[in-house]
Specification:
Helices cover 35% and strands 19% of the residues. By secondary structure, the protein is of the alpha/beta class. It binds flavin mononucleotide.
Length: 153
């Protein structure tokens, strides 16, 4: 039984980012994690923080497939997602190796943001030995990610 997570970096839980995600999962079961519903502190020097970071990280640790979705805000990923990713520096030993990661970028004209966001997610995958499977910014590409996901063991 494969476990699938949607990590939603949008402020809208049923917005365009979530809609594109539905085209990746289709009828596959998955658990959405809307970062807007969790309290994640900005990274600080004292890493022992009382917030929801570890709760969300625990969900990722249980997953086989992680779809990371972000809208483009000002030519970048959303602050919700960046804040969460910065905190991975507090969890450098997290057992994430081998997880399949799929990236969704949703914007009205996302081209300038795509290289930056893709680079950050690829960097994160390399550091944690996760397998970066690809990017979708539209329905056609989302369908291709769906096919990749169902063909993964
Ligand atoms: C604060 C803000 C900044 C935005 N900046 C950009 C941008 O620089 N480039 C772009 O293509 N879209 C930009 N957009 C549009 C959103 O990326 C787009 O509407 C996206 O589909 C929203 O996804 P959502 O429905 O999941 O929130 C911006 C939207 C907001 C709210």
């Amino acid at each position: 039984m494969q476990r699938r997570i949607f990590l939603n970096g949008s402020m809208n839980i049923n917005g365009n980012t979530a809609r594109l995600t539905n085209q990746v999962f289709r009828d596959l079961e998955y658990t959405p994690i809307h970062l807007t519903e969790f309290h994640i502190n900005q990274i600080r020097p004292d890493s022992d923080q009382q917030d929801d970071f570890q709760k969300v990280m625990n969900q990722l640790i249980l997953a086989d497939h992680i779809v990371i979705g972000t809208p483009v805000y000002w030519s970048s990923m959303s602050g919700y997602l960046k804040t969460f990713i910065d905190r991975f520096a507090d969890a450098l030993e997290a057992p994430l190796a081998g997880k399949r990661v799929y990236l969704l970028i949703q914007g009205t004209a996302p081209e300038d943001a795509i290289p930056f966001i893709t680079n950050v997610i690829s960097h994160l995958c390399r550091r944690f030995h996760m397998k970066y499977k690809g990017l979708a910014t539209n329905s056609n590409e989302a369908s291709k990610l769906h096919d990749l996901m169902v063909n993964e063991k």
